[in-house]
Amino acid sequence: MYSNLYNMVLKTRVEATMSTVLFLSVGLLSGLISIFIALYIYWDVMRLDQGNDRMKEVSALVEEGAYSFIKVQYRILAIFTIILAILFAIIFREFGIPIAISYILGSLASMTAGYIGIAVATKANRRTAAAAATGGLSPAFKVAFRAGSVMGLMMAGIALVGLSSLYWLWNFAIPDEFFIVVPRGPELWEIITGFSFGASTVALFAKAGGGIYTKTADLSADLVGKIEQHIPEDDPRNPAAIADAVGDNVGDVAGTGADIYDSNVAAILAAAILGAGIDLHFSPPVPFGLLPLVISALGTIASVFGVFLVRPKQDQDPGPILNRGTYITTVLFAAFTVLTVMLLNLSLVIAVVAIIGLIAGVSIGFTSDVFTSDRGVAGFKPVPKMVEAADKSAANLILSGYSYGLLSVLPSVIGIVIAMVVSYTLGALLGFGEWEGGIYCVAIAAVGLLATNGMVMSSDAYGPIVDNARGVIEQAQAPKEAIVAVDKLDASGNTAKAITKGFAIGASAISVLALFAAFIESTDTLNIPGIDGLIVVNIADPSVLAGAIIGALVPVAFSAILILGVERNSERMITEIRRQFDEHPGILDGTTKPDYDRCIAIATSGAIRELMPGTLIAITVTIVTGIILGLEALAGYLGGAVLSGLILALLMDNAGGAWDNTKKIIESPEYTKYEEGTEDWHRVHDISVTGDMVGDPFKDTAGPSINTLLVVISLTATLFLPIIAQLHVWLLALF
Amino acid sequence: MYSNLYNMVLKTRVEATMSTVLFLSVGLLSGLISIFIALYIYWDVMRLDQGNDRMKEVSALVEEGAYSFIKVQYRILAIFTIILAILFAIIFREFGIPIAISYILGSLASMTAGYIGIAVATKANRRTAAAAATGGLSPAFKVAFRAGSVMGLMMAGIALVGLSSLYWLWNFAIPDEFFIVVPRGPELWEIITGFSFGASTVALFAKAGGGIYTKTADLSADLVGKIEQHIPEDDPRNPAAIADAVGDNVGDVAGTGADIYDSNVAAILAAAILGAGIDLHFSPPVPFGLLPLVISALGTIASVFGVFLVRPKQDQDPGPILNRGTYITTVLFAAFTVLTVMLLNLSLVIAVVAIIGLIAGVSIGFTSDVFTSDRGVAGFKPVPKMVEAADKSAANLILSGYSYGLLSVLPSVIGIVIAMVVSYTLGALLGFGEWEGGIYCVAIAAVGLLATNGMVMSSDAYGPIVDNARGVIEQAQAPKEAIVAVDKLDASGNTAKAITKGFAIGASAISVLALFAAFIESTDTLNIPGIDGLIVVNIADPSVLAGAIIGALVPVAFSAILILGVERNSERMITEIRRQFDEHPGILDGTTKPDYDRCIAIATSGAIRELMPGTLIAITVTIVTGIILGLEALAGYLGGAVLSGLILALLMDNAGGAWDNTKKIIESPEYTKYEEGTEDWHRVHDISVTGDMVGDPFKDTAGPSINTLLVVISLTATLFLPIIAQLHVWLLALF
Predict the structure, then answer these.
(1) B368-403 burial string, b = 16+ CB within 10 Å, else e?
(2) Stretch A483-495: mean pLDDT
(3) What is the pLDDT of residue A267?
(4) How far does the CA of residue A553 sit from the closest CA of chain B (Å)?
(5) Are the C-beta atoms of B121 and B214 separated by less than 8 Å?
(6) Where are the domains of chain A?
(7) Cα–Cα dist B238/B595, whole Å
(8) What is the C-alpha to C-alpha distance for residues A645 and A666, in angstroms, rounded to an integer?
(9) Which helix (H) or strand (E) holds A463?
(10) What is the ipTM of this complex?
């Protein structure tokens, strides 16, 4: 009898260990495959023709500029990481060393991914330019897309390899008897939270710092170049032209990549914490804690296939081919997930919610597109209406962009709410109780949404590469046909880009909701006298309400600080550009070369300087609110931050996108109301440039940085939870 | 033994009845005094000189225009009120008739107050103009301020008389045996919620409708007049000049008045509901349910004194005199409250929290002033920075206004949080338990904040009257000295106005928090099977979180609809103004009189048409969310709405105010960077006009309407609570 029971327990343990090994292997291998394929594509792209000397020269300037930004940023990140790691090693006592190591690896992984993304993007622009100049549309598209996919597949792979190998390390390689103690189950994942925290802090630097950099350069280049001196965009005479091109790389390529990457890591982590809780309480046959890794692995493999299927025939419009790649990836992922779930003999609910997440992400992306594209939908055409508003006055254009931006919040957020409520409700069918099963399914929806991030990022990153190639062609004075080709590519890239932006917000929103659940679930296992069981976050309790209100203020303050940072920084740069034009009249004639480096230096140092206060304030306020008002208030704080953060992020992203496209329409041949070059056309165009300038820091600095901010503060709360709880209890004892 | 107990109970009852009569009498009498004094001042102002014929003529046009707006608006309000009253009579079953009667009286009271406000304002402008033309600064100030105080005292009085007499009616005049059933205690107050609901729906119409009206006229007049035709503001050649002047009356005078009035009624109501709950559970000697009426009465009496003490000597700057009036009112109110609390032998906590509320209101007002005044504070000068930004580009000005608007949210909201937490914590000292005592004190803080509303509104309403008088003088081509005098008055009025705006937001925020508490408290007394006890609003519960997110969307959608409404409406009006200028070139030469009436008609009908959808959506979504997701989710919904509503309201109010003042600085002699009239000056000035035009619907339409919206949806939830709860239980039973 006893021996039977012993055997049963042993069998369950062995089975559990076996599936742990199996799941980890799937995660690790898929990640490695993705990385190797990315490296292969990188090598393949590098072999291509780099274009004529002028292209090489211009592109090299951009490349150097990007590296100089990266160098400054990474030096500061390294200091930041080392200080925090030492802090973690001390304050987390027996878990200090593992958390510090996880954190350092998380930062390093994220920095590596960002570096590779920028490296390939800046090397690919001249190759794309060369391909456009010699082969036209399709070859140029192929180069740009493949270069973009290097970053996409690399980041998806690094997330998988990082998380699986860390789990492997703490679970198997380092036994309990070793010099440090590593807990098992959900607490092991809480150690790996350090990895995610590293990813997110680096992402916040990349996104917010890159965002300030790119908009500083863009705003200044536009103001002095386009408006004051009436020279075209990307004109080599503009001292800020290279800084502007660098900005596209550090902001759009590395920034957006980091944003999706860190949401992906956070979603897997949150689902893993919640799944490990189920494993602990219900001892099911499958380690639910590791299932999220497997789902993400399936999405990554599907992305690899998707990337290889994007192969345009000669002169074919790249838009549909890109969409086909996305559809195939989606279908493959869905099929893989259903098959895996059946193979593992699990409830199909798991597969269903993963697919719900995916659908939600894509739908949110499409609603963003309605509000920002030049088409709209039947009877509701925001951007065309804004084109009309621009004909009235700048104020009308600003007001309508702002209003449509507010309206655009609705469908996206309602989509997120529906995905959350449906996933939660379906979760009850898993049989682990309404709460446990429900929140696990919300987290799985987040993982499902982000699983195909390899493909999503690939089709997003190609846009800025083409944008840069355009700059290279323009500055290298290459033939007009090459510009026509990349302009076509740019247009097809815009829809993908708009969808990705919405997707990124949806992804971070659902990931943050999952993290919110993981935070609350983690309060259950705290071993601190005075705190018992799952907290109840009753907003009728004034301290919780106070927490929620303070939390809601964080994204408000953060966006204001970033936008004012862009303004302050561009003030310095505008002064510099004007100085160059004034002191060297030869620049305008094309006889004197402008001093690009000084603009790059200003943008770089200013970006780093302006992003620090917001970041530190956000982290500090999170911890202090928890210590003073308690865990319930801290949960309220996270809820409040999500609420206002979502609204502000969507408002700013979509209003900014709509202003951008309003300008693009007016500049395009389809705008027929006034003939280009006439006085009326100039009036309307100037107004649309004002709208675009307002929208730039909205959509490329403040808006998308809020996504990452929300992840960072949620992870801060989760990571520091034991310490916050302990200090709060001590604080209460003082009074 | 038994007879002793019986005597004790009887004694308590008699005492309670006596203090009920006493408290109601204080409320009623103070209200009546305030109303009579307002009527006396009205009669006194009416006797004054109406100026020359041209002044009379212009002013009569404005007066007629205002009445025609009022007529259209009140006709629709009457229909709306009758339909809702019938609905209430049916759906609230045994309480239907009393609720319907309370509601009708609430609407009527609010409409009367609004009517008187507009009547006195439109009659006072020509008298102010005449006083300025003949006597200069001080006589003009006296007329304008006294006219403003008619509305201030009238509204404070009507709130007191309405609430006291309704309580008297239901509690004493109509015995239980009568044909309708009237409950006692908290439920009696829930019937009087109908009165507050009437006040708030009328306020929403007044504020949002008036806001759309005034900005339609203002935007259109500025665009075609100032920017296109380069004629000055208020120029009689502008076909929209009269509509613009009418807008100042219906938007700024009646709208702001209605906003503060409805917050005041709601605050008293919320405190009364919570106090009546204490009376029921703890049978204390004082009817805590009626104490809020007494506190409000004390503030009203203090305001009467304050108003009479505002008496400037010849040519004295009116600013300090106005401030002195406010300070005296505040000190008197504090003294009255402390004395009354001691006389009633109550805990001083009650007086302390009432004063905390008052201090919070004034502080919030002052922080608004920092962000919108031309001074700022040491080292932090938003508006002067914006003046510099205007020199760079329109985009810089918009971005900095938006960012400072976001930052301005912080101190105000933190002030509200501190007032809430401190009042709640002090409430525990009352001895009725932490929750009951705490939330009662939060509500008392709201009542205290609003108690001196008579004085606050008096100093606010004088601003628009002066503004209008300026228009009358300008159009009547009166001597330049008269304009100088009213310009000085206008400048001193601006600070008062900025403070009042912040005050109004703080007031509605704390009132809404009190209503939120009253809503939750009311769930305790519901007599519906399936719902028992106080609800717990756990935002970790996905349905509550979903409710919170949906709630947060309501102010977002509402503001977007209002701003787009202004744009659509001004589009119609711009077309009309341009048509008049085109078809009648004589208008510009001053030989043909423009057709003012058509502009007025467009503004009126458009305003009503544009405000309906937002209002109906807000009410419907509130009820439907409650029915589908339940009471907990509905509470979450209210919380979410407050969170996003506060942020948006403060952002838009303060950004708008800052843009307005940026323009004013550039127009004033203190702006010395460019000489007035030079090309550079015109460039910067045009940019500042753009900023002001963006800010107009922010600060005068959408921003302040959100205050009222929050009160309306909170009251909707409280009023419909029993029905929502019942329908939700039935809906659950269906599945």
Answers:
(1) bbbbbbbebeeeebbbbbbbbbbbbbbbbbbbbbbb
(2) 77
(3) 94
(4) 7
(5) no
(6) 2-734
(7) 9
(8) 32
(9) helix A453-475
(10) 0.91
Distance of CA A612 to the CA centre of its chain: 19
Of B258-262, B304-308, B370-374, the range with the lowest mean pLDDT is B370-374
Three-state DSSP at B536 gives coil
Shortest Cα–Cα distance, A277 to chain B (Å): 17
The angle at the Cα of B485, spanning B479 to B488, to the nearest 5 degrees, equals 145
Helix (H) or strand (E) holding B488: helix B480-522
Instruction: Tokens for B17, please give them.
Output: 């009845």
Calpha distance B711→B361 (Å, rounded): 17
C-alpha radius of gyration, chain A, whole number: 25
Q: What average pLDDT does the segment A114-129 reach?
A: 88
Whole-number Å distance between alpha carbons of B144 and B146: 6
How many C-beta atoms lie closer than 10 Å to residue B115's C-beta? 15
Alpha-carbon distances of A567 from A560, B42, B156, B403, rounded to whole Å: 11, 51, 45, 10
> Nearest C-alpha of chain B: how many angstroms from A267?
17
Q: Which residues of A touch B400 (CB under 8 A)?
A: 564, 567
Average of pLDDT values for B79-88? 92
Residue pointed to by tokens 């925020």: B509
Query: Residues near A320 by Cβ (< 8 Å), separated by ≥ 6?
Result: none
Do B180 and B94 touch, CB atoms closer than 8 A?
A: yes
| Tokens 């966006």, located at residue | A559
DSSP letters of B108-130? HHHHHHHHHHHHHHHHHHHHHHH
Cα–Cα nearest to A316, from A485, A131, A494, A471 = A485
Q: Which of B404, B413, B438 is the closest to A549 by Cβ?
A: B413
| CA A101 centroid distance within chain | 24
Q: Rounded to whole angstroms, how far apart are CA atoms B661 and B382?
A: 11
Closest residue of chain A to B227, computed from CA coordinates: A393
Spatial separation of the C-alpha atoms in residues A36 and A30, rounded to whole Å? 10
Is A538 close to B536, i.e. CB distance below 8 A?
yes
Residues A599 and A240 sit within 8 Å (Cβ to Cβ): yes
| A181-213: pLDDT as tens digits | 555 666 788 888 999 999 999 999 888 888 898
Q: Do B628 and B727 meet the contact criterion of CB atoms below 8 Å apart?
A: no
* Mutation target among A403, A426, A573 for the B interface, most CBs of B within 10 A: A403
Q: Which residues in chain A are closer than 8 Å to B414, comparing Cβ atoms?
A: 550, 553
Q: What CA–CA distance (Å, rounded) separates A358 from A343?
A: 21
Nearest chain A residue to B424, by CA: A542
Residues making up chain A, counted from first to last: 735
Sign of CA dihedral A170, A176, A177, A179: positive
The reported pTM is 0.92
Query: Two tokens at A590?
Result: 């094309």
Instruction: Find, among B589, B438, B459, the residue nearest to B146 by Cα.
Output: B459
Q: How far is CA B381 from the centre of its chain?
A: 28
> A426 and A449 in contact (C-beta within 8 Å)?
no
Q: What's the CA gap between B626 and B633, in Å, rounded?
A: 7
Distance (Å, whole) CA B560 – CA B563? 5
Read off the tokens for A336.
């893989």
Q: Using CB atoms, which residue from A394, A546, A636 is nearest to B394? A: A394
Encoded amino acid at A732, one letter: L
Count of C-beta atoms within a 10 Å radius of residue B683:
15
Residue A477 has pLDDT above 60, yes or no: yes
pLDDT band at A337 (very low <50, low <70, confident <90, very high): very high
Q: Do A245 and A471 touch, CB atoms closer than 8 A?
A: yes
Taking an 8 Å cut-off on Cβ atoms, the answer to whether A553 and B409 are in contact is yes
A291 vs A157: CA distance, rounded Å: 16
C-beta separation of A348 from A341 below 8 A: yes
Tokens of A208: 């917010």
